[in-house]
Write a structure and sequence with these properties.
Layout lengths: L20 H21 L6 H5 L1 H11 L6 E2 L5 E3 L1 E7 L4 E7 L6 H17 L3 E7 L5 E7 L2
Antiparallel strand pairs: 1-2, 3-4, 4-6, 5-6
Helix pairs in contact: 1-3
Length: 146
């Protein structure tokens, strides 16, 4: 199957590195579609599709905001610094972390990077709360407003 025939998947931070002009165009198209769904449904916050697929919706919003996703190589080793979006609370919420390869210093950049993530998400009607887990690991828990 060619790249053009594959359905678009937002970068969650658990896949391969995804960059380039074709990727940027695909992200813009998908994000414009999300905004169009909101317009048609008459909602300024997350629409029903986003509520049903919150990890995909949050990852798309972050990628569209120009925030780099993390990535893993073929062996599952983290190879790029950026956000990682994963299901939390039985799939109703999304956990957003700032991760990178060992020795990358991602943990030192996490506070500022997560603030940028939270700002981008709040502007789109998501509630993003910052938490600190074991070993002072910061992360966001994201849910649709309302």
């Amino acid at each position: 199957m060619t790249d053009a025939a594959r359905p678009f998947e937002p970068a969650t931070g658990d896949g391969p590195v995804v960059r380039g002009t074709e990727r940027a165009a695909a992200v813009r198209t998908a994000f414009d579609g999300l905004l169009n769904i909101r317009r048609v449904m008459g909602t300024s916050g997350p629409a029903e599709w986003e509520r049903l697929k919150p990890v995909r919706a949050v990852a798309l919003a972050l990628e569209a905001a120009g925030i780099e996703p993390s990535a893993v190589d073929g062996d599952g080793t983290r190879c790029a610094t950026g956000y990682r979006a994963s299901a939390e609370d039985g799939g109703r919420a999304v956990r957003v972390e700032w991760l990178g390869p060992p020795g990358s210093g991602a943990e030192y950049a996490a506070n500022e990077a997560l603030r940028r993530c939270a700002e981008a998400l709040r502007a789109l009607g998501w509630v993003a709360l910052e938490y600190r887990g074991p070993r002072r690991h910061h992360y966001l828990e994201v849910e649709p407003a309302g």
